[in-house]
Amino acid sequence: MAGVFAGGLISGQAADTFGRKPTFFLSVLVVVAFNLAGYFPMGWQAYAAMRFLIGLGMGSYLTVQYSLMLEFATVRWRPPIVAAPSWPVEASLFALVAWALHDWQKMHLAIVIAMAPYLLAWW
């Protein structure tokens, strides 16, 4: 959660400085890369560092995604997009997948498989 906090603090300024799209895709890349690194066995200190960096990417992703979505939505659709409870739905689906997989390594791999295709949406 410290990584999520730090990512949330950093990403707003980064999105204003460098743009929302580069910040968003960098956060997705960070989540994918460090989940892939977290898949391989390592000591608990390195794993804790990986989890912090994953949290950093997720905090950035969660902060930037709404403003990026709203830039592409028409004025009519902006209130429903903001009001839609996407974070609770995503967290519930994540818990369901974690319950089904029963293994932290499989969870890391599932996250990589689910998020890597988003990197292809740059264009």
Note the main attributes of this structure.
81% helix; Growth Hormone, Chain: A; 123 residues; mainly alpha; 0% strand; single chain
Brief sketch in words of this structure:
The chain has 6 helices and no strands.
CATH class: Mainly Alpha
Query: How do the helices and strands follow one another from N- to C-terminus?
Result: HHHHHH
Outline the biggest β-sheet: none
Instruction: Count the E strands.
Output: 0
Give the distance, in angstroms, between the N- and C-terminal Cα atoms.
Answer: 31 Å
Radius of gyration: 15 Å
**Basic shape:** globular
Note the total helix count. 6
Can you describe this structure?
By secondary structure, the protein is mainly α. It has a single domain (about 1-120), classed as Growth Hormone, Chain: A, CATH 1.20.1250. It has helices at about 1-20, 20-40, 45-70, 80-85, 85-100, 105-115. The protein is globular.
